[in-house]
Amino acid sequence: MFLLYEYDIFWAFLIISSVIPILAFLVSGVLAPIRKGPEKLSSYESGIEPMGDAWLQFRIRYYLFALVFVVFDVETVFLYPWAMSFDVLGVSVFIEALIFVLILIVGSVYAWRKGALEWS
């Protein structure tokens, strides 16, 4: 039987974790001083006036490197629940985790061969 009162802690946590950031933004918007001027509108980099245009083209390799890192970093998080409940889940889940890791290895070898892991 589905009982709603078992999820009271979840709903309380969800409401509190949603209300606190909203309140923080509202309070900072009300209490923050508003000063407009040329200093406020200028860009600041270490006290030095900026030179050149703000639109710089970055090499796509930096984005690829970051994307590969994020993909493999996030995928590693999925291994943690398997590791924590390995003794309960059995052999079928171990085989699924093994296939998952093999797919990650194939993906990293592919990225390595394509040169996505080379920094310079």
Textual characterization of the structure:
This protein is mainly alpha-helical and 120 residues long. The protein has one domain. 67% of the residues lie in helices and 0% in strands. It is flat and about 65 Å long.
Topology of this structure?
Blueprint (H helix, E strand, L loop, with lengths): L7 H24 L6 H4 L18 H18 L1 H6 L1 H4 L1 H24 L6
GO cellular component, one term: mitochondrial membrane
EC number: 7.1.1.-
Subcellular location: Mitochondrion membrane; Plastid, Chloroplast thylakoid membrane
**Main sheet characteristics:** none
Distance from first to last alpha carbon: 59 Å
E-strand count: 0
Helix/strand-derived class? Answer: mainly alpha
Radius of gyration (CA) equals: 24 Å
What overall form do the CA principal axes indicate? flat
What string gives the helices and strands in order?
HHHHHH
Helix content percent band = 55-70%
- Mean model confidence by pLDDT: 81
Give me the number of helical elements: 6
- In the predicted model, the low-confidence regions spanning at least 5 consecutive residues are none
Count of the separate structural domains: 1
Please report which band the strand proportion falls in: under 5%, 5-15%, 15-25%, 25-35%, 35-45% or over 45%.
under 5%
Family: Belongs to the complex I subunit 3 family.
GO cellular component, one term: mitochondrial membrane
Pfam family, one: Oxidored_q4
Protein name: NAD(P)H-quinone oxidoreductase subunit 3, chloroplastic
